[in-house]
């Protein structure tokens, strides 16, 4: 399928890089920090117990699901308080978490493909996560990053997609949203009026009762190839933002 687009919004976690290795490394590094600086906290909340605490804090604070940074801080705060640890360690412990969170290992094709895509059309990061593109080292490839924390609502809420379109100065239908998640990315974008591209690296079966993606690729390289093959991608006539 070919159609003109003027910009791309791009998911980050599990689209540019896998999150699971990051999450595992976060757990180990935070545990090592607590064992050194707050042994009683590490004893009460080893990795498995800290994971269970995180799940409990997330469940108890569903109103903050758009703000993963706040939920992570709350988890550490709970662990320190419940174990009798020093609450003054919160900032340092969170920085340990956040430093690891922004150490990413790209999918093999991602970075080169992103560079090609960004050379063709403006790209905006659109994420429910809390990666910092400056820390990651790729902010120069993006027009901007819009996170759910900043926006106040998370994907698949239509408002975050439309806010990104407004900042890009594009009509909703002129923007292609690219991501791995069937509901958060593809269905959310489609309902908001954007074009959608499903990055399906694991050969999953599409399962959604209402919607299908406009495009489906198993790598970002394939998306970059598609962009290169569409000569009018960046040359569609101006239309007012919807």
Automatic annotation (TrEMBL):
<dbReference type="GO" id="GO:0009231">
    <property type="term" value="P:riboflavin biosynthetic process"/>
</dbReference>
<dbReference type="Pfam" id="PF00702">
    <property type="entry name" value="Hydrolase"/>
</dbReference>
<keyword id="KW-0378">Hydrolase</keyword>
<dbReference type="InterPro" id="IPR036412">
    <property type="entry name" value="HAD-like_sf"/>
</dbReference>
<dbReference type="InterPro" id="IPR006439">
    <property type="entry name" value="HAD-SF_hydro_IA"/>
</dbReference>
<keyword id="KW-0460">Magnesium</keyword>
<dbReference type="GO" id="GO:0016787">
    <property type="term" value="F:hydrolase activity"/>
</dbReference>
<dbReference type="InterPro" id="IPR051400">
    <property type="entry name" value="HAD-like_hydrolase"/>
</dbReference>
<protein>
    <submittedName>
        <fullName>HAD-IA family hydrolase</fullName>
    </submittedName>
</protein>
<dbReference type="InterPro" id="IPR023214">
    <property type="entry name" value="HAD_sf"/>
</dbReference>
